[in-house]
């Protein structure tokens, strides 16, 4: 996963305002608990959120399954208090507990096996202090059915050209994503690489059951970057869960 995507990820995610999203998530921590002092950034990717939370004085453990993503992340530490670990989320193994966990940018959707998702939530619970928060976002079923669907997208940046081709399987709610990249280093010659990833849409009932079985209670489910309930056409939902067991 993300073997080729890692070296163009930051360019393609240029429209993601990590600072604004960090402020939003920080506000959720403060509203329902407090800011963490040691934060787990699960599926941290290239470290966008890890950097932003570290800039706020939070110690961060960033975990990702992709060595390529972590290689990019480590290049931007620049003295920040961040420890990066290469681990599968469902096999999470930390040195101790943390007092806050985030999982952002639909990383939960990339866990396409429900049993593995349940195991991931149990691992998060194991290493999260009691009464502390787990905040994550998901692409909704609506987004998978109506936006991603069986659609093709073209991303044309200065040095990167990407064809993003989706195939949606409504039976298991999985979107197969084929990525075809063309990247130039000199403006004339191009390198072509391909990657393949999958996302699964989870219902609210599936997520609630997995969280409950892992010892969490859901405190809120919000529309993206808002504090209002999700609507039928909400594309990304934020879950705020507290560990109670």
Largest sheet: 7 strands, mixed
- What is the alpha-carbon Rg in Å? 18 Å
> How do the SSEs run, as a string of H and E?
HHEHEHEEHEHEEEEHEE
Low-pLDDT sequence parts: none
Tell me the helix content: 25-40%
- Report the sheet-strand fraction: 25-35%
Main attributes of the structure:
single chain; 245 residues; alpha/beta; 7-stranded mixed sheet; 4-stranded antiparallel sheet; 11 strands; 33% strand; globular
Task: Give the helices and strands, then pairings.
Blueprint lengths: L8 H4 L5 H15 L5 E5 L5 H8 L3 E6 L2 H8 L7 E5 L13 E4 L10 H14 L5 E7 L1 H8 L3 E5 L3 E10 L4 E11 L5 E11 L3 H10 L2 E8 L12 E8 L2
Parallel strand pairs: 1-2, 1-4, 2-3, 4-5
Antiparallel strand pairs: 5-11, 6-7, 7-8, 8-9, 10-11
Helix pairs in contact: 2-3, 5-7
Structure characterization notes:
By secondary structure, the protein is an alpha/beta fold. 27% of the residues lie in helices and 33% in strands. Helix 3 (48-55) links the parallel strand 1 and strand 2 (59-64). The longest helix has 15 residues, at 18-32. The protein is globular and about 55 Å long. The mean pLDDT is 92.
